[in-house]
Write the C-alpha cells for this entry.
Amino acid sequence: MAGRADQAKLPRFVEPFLEMLMVERGAAANTIEAYRRDLIDYCGFLKSRSVAPDTADSDHIRQYLAGLARQGVKASTAARRLSSLRQFHKFLFAEAIRQDDPTVVIDAPRRGRPLPKIMSEEDVDRLLAAAGADVGPEGTRLQCLLELLYATGMRVSELVTLPVTAVLRDEPFLLIRGKGDKERIVPISLPARLAVNAYLEDRSEHLPDGRESPFLFPSRGKEGHLTRQRFGQILKELALEAGLDPAKVSPHVLRHAFASHLLANGADLRVVQQLLGHADISTTQIYTHVQEERLKALVEANHPLARRRYEG
C-alpha cells in the first residue's frame, strides 16, 4: 500500500477502493500498487476534461482507451488497465456512489496475435548448404535434422524423440506422434530421405558407449536422445556459419517456414493444418496473415502509385 504522502495525492474514491482490495480481498502489495498507478492515470485523464469518476460515462472511457492506443500502449497493457477500471467502477456502483457502471458496455482492446518469425526460402537454402558443408558424423546428423524438420514441419520435441523405427523402412512418409499422443502421417521429400539414409550410416557414432537406442537421434545425456535445447544451440551456431542472424533462426522458426512456404506455393490451408498437427484451423490461419503482410509490403514497395505517394 502507498505511504501517507502518496495517499494524500490519491484522486477521490481511489483510496477507499484500494483499502477494500487490501482488507476484503487480501490483495498483494504489488497488485494494489498496479491498481493505484492505473487509477491515478485514469483519473488524471478525467480531470483534464473536468470530469469526476462518479460522473464519467462510457464515452469518456472509450476516449481514454483510444488515447492509450495513440500513445502506442500495447493492447495487453490497455486490457489490464480496462480491467482496473471495471473493478473500480463496479466498486463505485456497489457502494451507491453512482447509479450505473459505464464499463459494462466497453469491449476489451483486441490483442493482436504476434506474427511468427519466418525465414525466406533463400535463407533456408543457405542454412541447408552450410549444414551440407560439414562433413563427418556431426554433419550428416545435422543435415538429417534440418531436412526432416523443413520437409515435415515437425515440432522440435517430435523430431528429437523420433524413434529409429520410423525411418528404417525407407517409406516416403513418417508416422508422427504429436500432442495428446495423436498420430499423423506426413510425407517426406526425396532430399530428406537421402539425408536420413546418409545419417543412418553414421548413426552408430552417436550411440552412447556403443549401446543400442530406440531414438533416431541418440545421445549420451540422461534423456537418451538429442535435447531440443542442444539442437537449438547447434542451429544458432550453423546460422552464424551461413551468415544469418542467429536470433532469427530456431527449430520453431523452421516449422513456421515449412508452413509459410507451403501456403506461398499454393498448398491448401486444411492440408497444412493436418501436416502441422493443429487441432484448430484458427491456429494455422496465422500463416495466411503472414502472406497478407508480405503481399502488402510487396505492393507498397513496387506499385507505382504507392511509390509516388511516398516520393511526393
